[in-house]
Design goal:
The chain has helices at about 35-40, 50-75, 80-90, 95-110, 115-130, 135-140, 145-155, 160-175, 180-190, 195-210, and strands spanning about 5-10, 20-25, 30-35. With about 210 residues, it is α+β, with helices and mostly antiparallel strands. The chain has 3 domains: about 5-110, Arc Repressor Mutant, subunit A, CATH 1.10.10; about 115-160, Arc Repressor Mutant, subunit A; about 160-210, Arc Repressor Mutant, subunit A (Orthogonal Bundle). Helix 2 crosses helix 4 (about 95-110) and helix 6 packs antiparallel against helix 7. The radius of gyration is 25 Å and the shape is elongated.
């Protein structure tokens, strides 16, 4: 196996310090990215050929370990879905096969659990910034949660969308008289949060009773 190309990447690493990384291509195919210290300690800069055994050693013991550390650092900052971690690792230059292996290991260890992520996300949303089921579904899917998990988790929550919408509208528009101008604002407000026209009509009807 021949090392056909080495690309040097210079990154800013806080306080304007530079951090060098090296993308290694073997037989014309990108294999992995190494930090400068590993690149030097493994003497890759001197090599033109590399054995499959050494490639696998570097991949498993250096690259994969570094990817796992990056993933865990991200998870320490906030709980993430498997897709978010995969995107993070891809942005750091890790190949898909390394990312998949790391994610599967972290799933097995309980660090990544898309179902728990969805449960926590919905619970927090309903407490802090309530939205409709439609909006929550869209947001969770955008974060990489699978449709079946989203639907199962949402089914576990008893959500009265009219009651949620009514509380939101009372909080924001309670001090106003409900005229046509305010109705349009309420409609836009609820539509932005994913509520249907039926929910809007029920909210307005409730206000008209008072």
């Amino acid at each position: 196996m021949n090392i056909t190309e080495i690309k040097e990447i210079v990154k800013k690493n806080g306080y304007k310090r530079e951090k060098k990384e090296y993308k290694i291509f073997i037989d014309g195919t990108y294999y992995f990215t190494l930090d400068e210290d590993v690149y030097l300690s493994e003497a890759i800069y001197e090599a033109t050929e590399i054995s499959l055994e050494r490639v696998e050693y570097i991949r498993q013991n250096i690259v994969k370990r570094a990817a796992k550390t990056k993933a865990l650092n991200s998870l320490c900052l906030k709980y993430c879905t498997s897709v978010q971690i995969k995107e993070k690792l891809a942005s750091e230059g890790y190949t898909e096969d390394i990312s998949v292996e790391v994610i599967n290991e972290l799933k097995g260890m309980g660090y990544i659990n898309d179902r728990l992520f969805a449960q926590k996300y919905i619970s927090d949303r309903l407490k802090l910034k309530p939205k409709s089921k439609k909006a929550l579904t869209h947001e969770l899917h955008e974060k990489g949660v699978a449709w079946d998990i989203i639907n199962e988790v949402l089914d576990d929550y008893e959500m009265d969308e009219t009651d949620i919408a009514l509380r939101l509208v009372r909080k924001k528009f309670g001090k106003y008289k409900i005229d046509q101008k305010i109705k349009r604002k309420i409609y836009s407000f609820l539509l932005h949060r994913g509520f249907s026209i039926e929910v809007f009509n029920k909210v307005i009807a409730d206000f008209n009773k008072n």
